[in-house]
Design a protein that fits this description.
By secondary structure, this protein is α/β, with parallel strands linked by helices. The protein has 14 helices and 26 strands. A hairpin with a 5-residue loop joins strand 6 and strand 7.
Length: 543
């Protein structure tokens, strides 16, 4: 399957129809993208091969930045009901002695626990239930995408097959959220760049009422002979990950030996293995993430080893970064080159996270080369440096690199606010308490500590930005302090709540309005959302 720039229409495909966006893959990344687009009035069709939630064990941890994304998608309250906060990560030696702790706060800068544990099938049910309530989206399950074609600037033609035959959709854009073996990645001619990590691990998800000896976080056993990851996922749910010899499936006796440091497993005990699978953990990134109006997101674009719990997080960041830009182009006529900033912003960030995960993986598991002992010794010394573990945790999601929508200026004393996220405290407005993002809405926003001039108000109005004074928000002065620390009188926030530009202290204007104004200029106001997707365009539609 290829994105064919010259291919003609498939005359044999019955029932062609148009939809603004087709999303291939109904995992968390694809469904979250659909929900985010729906909140901006963009209709989607989501195509998924599997008839139900994919059965294999996958992600079990997320961070507060991603909780904020789930808030933007409208599902955080439901997610909170199936998630539990975690205290962080412990590194243990082969004798289970603590080498280091990477603690995570009960509430981070984004307004949520810095680490939350969950069972991915439960997250997927939360997302799919929300999608079923969303009239702008339709989920087609049990279908196979067999063709993606694009003629120049024309619509993308997506051919999919179900039990009734082949069907055609024409779309303004296609999002490939179809995982590590992505057909969409092949379609745009993208290839993997290998970032030099590959290990085979056995992952075991367990439900048990037995007393389990555990710290309420993630434990990584840094034993080169048997590296192991252990975590409590839910009230009675646990996960073990073991690096075992190839094709080694543990029987009951082997299982008793493996889990003995945590639980006494007698014959007949309540110890249910819910899922067990072997995974190859890899570090890879696609050489390009876009061709025309076809985009890659999540595991289709990058693979992250699980050692810092950022694989799914990276994919949801992709969705958050791309969807507001795509909606602005499709519904408000913004320039096409706005879409170029998706890969230019997300790819360096994803590469950084992958490299950090690889470094942690080699350090924690010891690796399999002659330098393994040296790495473990360096790790043991490094984690005792005051402040290092705090800095390592903080750098899991660094600020975006400078670009058209990140107008960073070099300044004495640090990088400033631009490129990083605005914190999200609880605030008071109209007699109610709310998280900041719920007050600001889905568009641009200006937070200011000073009155804005008429010209700056005009700039904000042109972006559809809400203007909020940081005074009197009932946030204990957090936002005002954030501005002071960044030496700014005001900050312009993008819809994904990244600080795009600032008015420096004592300044009269944003630092680089000319650079981003033309990129964000729109030719029309927001079109009222069409509330439904015509199901007559589809076959085998699951709602």
């Amino acid at each position: 399957m290829t994105v064919d720039q010259a291919a003609g229409p498939r005359e044999t495909v019955p029932g062609p129809g148009h939809v603004p966006v087709v999303i291939v893959g109904a995992g968390p990344v694809g469904v979250t993208a659909a929900l985010l687009l729906a909140r901006r009035g963009v209709r989607t069709v989501v195509l998924e091969r599997h008839p139900d939630v994919y059965p294999l064990p996958r992600a079990v941890a997320t961070d507060d930045e991603v909780r904020r994304i789930l808030q933007a998608a409208g599902v955080d309250e439901e997610f909170a009901a199936v998630a539990r906060p975690a205290r962080g990560l412990r590194l243990l030696d082969a004798r289970h002695r603590v080498m280091a702790e990477f603690l995570r706060a009960a509430q981070g800068a984004h307004g949520f626990p810095q680490t939350s544990m969950f069972d991915q099938p439960e997250l997927e049910r939360v997302l799919r239930d929300a999608l079923a309530r969303t009239p702008q989206s339709v989920l087609c399950s049990g279908v196979e995408v067999v063709g993606v074609e694009q003629d120049g600037d024309g619509p993308v033609r997506v051919t999919y097959r179900d039990e009734e035959g082949e069907h055609l959709l024409r779309a303004d854009a296609v999002l490939g959220c179809d995982g590590a073996n992505s057909l969409i990645r092949d379609a745009i001619g993208a290839t993997w760049e290998d970032l030099r990590f590959e290990e085979r691990w056995t992952v075991i998800d367990v439900r048990t009422s037995l007393p389990v000896r555990c710290w309420d976080g993630v434990e990584q056993i840094c034993d080169p002979q048997r590296p192991t990851t252990f975590m409590r996922v839910g009230e009675d749910r646990y996960r073990w990950e073991f690096r075992l010899p190839e094709d080694s499936e543990p029987d009951h006796e082997r299982m008793r030996e493996l889990v003995a440091p945590w639980v006494d497993l007698a014959h007949g005990a309540d110890f249910q293995v819910v899922r067990q699978a072997q995974y190859t953990f890899r570090a890879r990134i696609a050489d390009h993430w876009r061709r025309g109006r076809v985009f890659l997101l999540g595991d289709a674009a990058h693979l992250t080893p699980p050692f810092i719990g950022q694989g799914l997080c990276a994919g949801l960041r992709d969705a958050y970064n791309l969807t507001w830009k795509l909606a602005r182009v499709l519904r408000q006529g913004a320039q096409e080159r706005l879409l170029e900033t998706y890969e230019s912003e997300r790819k360096p960030h994803a590469r950084h996270v992958i490299r950090l995960a690889v470094a942690m993986g080699w350090a924690m598991t010891g690796g399999q080369d002659g330098a393994a002992a040296l790495r473990r010794g360096v790790l043991g010394a490094a984690v005792r440096i005051p402040g290092l573990t705090t800095a390592a945790v903080r750098d899991l999601s660094p600020a975006l690199t400078a670009g058209p929508l990140v107008r960073r200026r070099v300044r004495v004393g640090g990088r400033g606010l631009v490129g990083g996220f605005c914190p999200q405290p609880w605030v008071s407005a109209d007699g109610r308490r709310a998280r900041l993002d719920d007050l600001l809405g889905d568009s641009f926003a200006v937070l200011t500590a000073v009155p804005l001039s008429p010209s700056l108000k005009a700039v904000a109005d042109g972006l559809g930005a809400r203007i909020r004074s940081v005074a009197g928000l009932g946030d204990d002065g957090r936002l005002a302090a954030w501005l002071r620390e960044g030496r700014a009188d005001a900050v312009l926030l993008r819809p994904d709540r990244v600080a795009m530009d600032v008015i420096p202290c004592g300044g009269r204007d944003f630092t680089d309005t000319a650079a981003w104004a033309s990129l964000l200029h729109t030719t029309r106001s927001t079109i009222p959302a069409q509330r439904t997707v015509e199901t007559s365009l589809l076959r085998s539609t699951t709602r």
